[in-house]
Amino acid sequence: MIGIVTSVKPYPVSPMRAVPTSIPRPEYVGNDRPEQYSGSHVQTPQTIAKMRVAGRIAAQALNAGAAIVAPGVTTEQIDQVVHDFLIANNAYPSTLDYRGFPKACCTSVNEVICHGIPDARPLEDGDLIKIDVTAFVDGVHGDNCATYGVGEVDEESRLLAERTKQAMERGIRAVRPGREISVIGRVIEAYAKRFGYGVVRDYTGHGVHSAFHSGLVIPHFDNPYYTEVMEPGMTFTIEPMLAMGDQRSHVWDDGWTVVTNDGSRVAQWESTLVVTDDGAEVLTVA
Ligand code: MF3
Ligand code: CO
Ligand code: CO
Asked: What pTM was computed for the model?
């Protein structure tokens, strides 16, 4: 049975936490929105080397946050661990003041698809939580996300998380120079359909490097219109969101929290990668 009971509600959000002024910030901090990126989708070896560093710190920060996931822990406590880890490593938490987002990571529980704001809600036994961390280091971003069960999760939720990770990995394996971007979503959707999962269409993967969201769009569903051809040096995320039921969504009044209309649970995994001469290299590796 698909859970249709709404389990997550808004809770109080604490004030934005400070980042030492010694840590360089992305250009959008303090502004309403980021500058539009108009450069190449292909990055230099120097930029890619910096992205390996940012990617590693993002992956380690995600692991640090995941390590405290347990019943009774609030998502704000997870944010605090992620925030402190990033600044201890001289990284700026990319989501902090990105278009006004107030926290160092996104924590999206159960039917929250993405962009959940860490708040005072204590995790409950059986919850499914997505933690999405992006680190800005030396002028570039590394962006990653994973799904965790809280205490004892039901078998359907465990499988949803496991298969969503597998969907991401299949998408990564489909990356190859000379292929169109559209192959990624085709592979992911074909896999998700086997299980009857809904593939979220309203939120996609994206080009990432000096820009957090470069304008390059990576859909996770089968859409033949994405004919852009992959080239060595292109850097982007693959971050499928799969719903146990229907993928259609709406946003809470907070302007951020995206939830499924039918209340069905969602899992998400995300990696940042670079297209290589014969495939892909994942950059968000701890
Ligand atoms: N990390 C998210 C992504 O994968 C973006 C979060 S933007 C925020 O693209 F403002 F919601 F934090
Ligand atoms: Co992303
Ligand atoms: Co992300």
From this structure: 0.97
